[in-house]
Amino acid sequence: MGRSVDGVVIEVNRIRCDGRGMCAGLLPERVTIDEWGYPIVDPTPLPHTMMGDARRAVAMCPLLALRMARSVPT
Questions:
Q1: pTM of the entire structure?
Q2: Sign of the Cα pseudo-torsion (42, 45, 48, 54, in order)
Q3: Residue 66 and residue 74: Cα distance in Å, rounded?
Q4: What is the pLDDT of residue 38?
Q5: Counting Cβ atoms within 10 Å, is residue 14 exposed (0-12), middle (13-18) or buried (19+)?
Q6: Which of 3, 6, 39, 60 is most deeply buried (CB count within 10 A of its CB)?
Q7: Paired strand residues for 46
Q8: Residue 70, φ and ψ in degrees, nearest 5
């Protein structure tokens, strides 16, 4: 899949999200939809090859419920 971008992940603000599902359409490799239409995001760091699609999904979210963030080491 390619090397990751310094631990950058996609996060969802579950309070803002109303389950429109646009993120899953724009980034299906990382976002799936649960039975109520809300996103389930793969928590692994994004590879370089997905950065453009990830930025587009974040920018296109109508409620600004998505963001890109640095992952926290466990």
A1: 0.83
A2: positive
A3: 22
A4: 94
A5: exposed
A6: 39
A7: none
A8: -75, 135
Could you give the count of Cα atoms lying within 13 Å of 55 in the half-sphere of its Cβ?
7
Q: Tokens 């600004």 appear where?
A: 64
Domain spans of the chain, in order of start: 8-70
Banded pLDDT at 71 (limits 50, 70, 90):
confident
Residue 43 confidence (pLDDT) above 60? yes
How many residues are present in the chain? 74
Give the DSSP H or E segment for 22.
helix 22-26
Which overall architecture, per CATH, does domain 8-70 show? 2-Layer Sandwich (3.30)
CB proximity list for 32: less than 8 A, separation 6 or greater: 24, 39, 40
Tokens of 13: 């603000």
**HSE value, Cβ hemisphere, 13 Å, CA-based, for 38:** 10
